[in-house]
Amino acid sequence: MPTHRRATDDTLPGKRPGVDEAEAALVEHYPRLVRLAYLTLPPSLGRHRRVLTAHAVVQRVLPRSRKGDASSPVPAQRGTTGAAFAWMRERVVRDALDRDGRPRSRRALVARWLPQLPAVVGLRLFPRAGGGDELALDQALFAVGSPARAALALLVLEGMAAAEVRALLTAAGVRDPAGALRTAERLASERGGRTEALLGAPEFDPCTVQTRPTDLLRRRHRRRVAGAATVVVALACSVLIAMPGHDAREPAAVAGRADGAALARALDPALLERASGDAWSDTSRVDFSVWPARGDRTGDPALLERALRVWGKPGPAVRVSATTGTGTVPPAAPPRLLYAGEVGGAAVVLLHDGQRVARYAEPVSGDGAPALDFARTDDADVTTAAAVVVSRGPDGVRYLLAPWIAESTTRDLLAPETPDTPADDLDVSQDGVTGPVPSPSPGGDCSSWPVLRLRSSEKIVERHAFLVTDLGDLSPAHLTYTPLPGTGAPARQPREATGGAALASWARTACSLRSLRGSGVRAVNNWAFAEQKLPETGARSTWVCTRADSWRGPGRIMVQFQQPASSPVEPSTVVAQDRDTASCSRFGQHVLAGTRWKAPSGTWFLLAAGSRDVTRITATGGVRADEPVRTLAVRAPRESSVDLTGRLADGQELRSVR
Description:
The protein has 658 residues and is α+β, with helices and mostly antiparallel strands. It has helices at 19-40, 47-59, 82-98, 106-113, 132-142, 146-156, 162-171, 177-189, 195-199, 216-224, 226-242, 250-266, 301-312, 500-509; strands spanning 123-127, 209-213, 319-322, 336-343, 346-352, 356-363, 371-376, 387-393, 396-401, 405-412, 424-425, 450-456, 465-469, 477-482, 495-496, 521-533, 540-550, 555-562, 573-579, 592-598, 604-610, 614-621, 625-627, 631-635, 642-648, 653-655. Helices cover 27% and strands 25% of the residues. Strands 10, 11, 12, 13, 14, 15, 16, 17, 18 and 19 form a ten-stranded mixed beta sheet that branches. A hairpin with a 3-residue loop joins strand 22 (614-621) and strand 23. Helix 1 (19-40) crosses helix 3 and helix 1 (19-40) crosses helix 6. The chain is globular and about 80 Å long.
């Protein structure tokens, strides 16, 4: 039953504007109105049809000229179109809502089938894809009705009060405006104040679209039968006009069938992509796209069909998990098969759709429930596509290694090792599955931190060794190190954490990785940005910025202070943290931080240090100092509020990380 009744122009509040005034409002606010229509329209139309329909709804909203129209012959200027815009907004909502209802007459039905402008032939249009948060919101919008979507857009994007939204929905013919408003308010409150930013993202912008061709082979075939198709369409239209009570939602049903056909194709095990065994050694793109299908059950269509069916529609018994910012929707096209085999008492299937790795696991025996795990892997490379978790158990984690990994060992970051200390060998099967690797303890005492030391084949890069570690996600995190700046040397880039200085730095910072577990971390870099001589003792301490980059993009930093210690694995002191920041990366190459430190005499000092381009440090508040230095040490009370700022070589001011 429709969730709204069809309204007429007379039911809409507000005075009907003149044509010129309405035209000025349309030109000024066209993107707002199209986005509003797009969000209100039913997702079952499909993204291409939804984009075109949103533009059609807005372009048809102008009032027709009437005899006695009091509008001025001079077009209205910007800033004077408020009343006209409000009237047009109401009509856009009404017309978009009507696309989800049943036309009352044959005339309305025929109008629904007639071509409408804009029209696009030979191309498919769709908004730019967003991240995992936008994808999750899109799924939530799909699950509610058009009135609730309209109410959410009016509340969040248009900034209308709840009473105004309720009145507009009532005028537009919604049968339960209060219920739609409650649903919209719930959706808005579920995202911690980020709903406005998400709805304003390119994911929901039908004015900024991408294009793809339609099926080229099918189009060629259609040209050959165009004459016959024209006759059939004409005959069908005549029959359609004569048919009483035809369902006006048929166009949406056709689009739904097209989407269903695409989904069925994506979930067909016979269409799974499979790379050749040596594709990785003859390409400029070394990532998951060149992984061959491995495992002793890659030819098991029943297992592959179950894995794809669960991905397409997980049942209530399936345990579904995803790293932060990773969507769980079905693939848009047939994914790539990476692995299918038995590991740790489970049948495991690994699939890759270009943006994500999906891991399906079902027990080989017993009544255990299947599991489906997702992780983002877009823009992976030689190191971040080097391994994927295939199983977790009491004995540790087993990985499937990339085909370009020529050597794999394990070592403990907290063991007093050097680069020359032999690492522990790691058993690897012919299919590339490793033996169990102990997983770092998620809590309690941090007595060890196992890592994988991998070396790439010389077919793609000469003697390239690197470290990865398990942080609870499907894809292990890549560990790197940036050494202290040298005198007069250019800024150094992150390098692999396999040298002596890198291992010494990670031995003191590894335990801080526990706070990053399960957060979708792609890589973690230790940047030793400053060295400071301590007051009274003259001993040297090191300031390190540990930056964790996520697959989503945002980074998190921890500034750690490493003072001389009796043990090479004594944990550093975390003195400052920040989230969603570019600091300590190539996009944020400057950092300043400070901490309190107690000298052997019992005197307390304020210590501060900046990166290589800091030329002056200023302290205000409980401590006052202003010195042209890169490291600062002044006497200070143990407890007092202090603000630190730095001055860069180009004169810019730099705030400290707190």
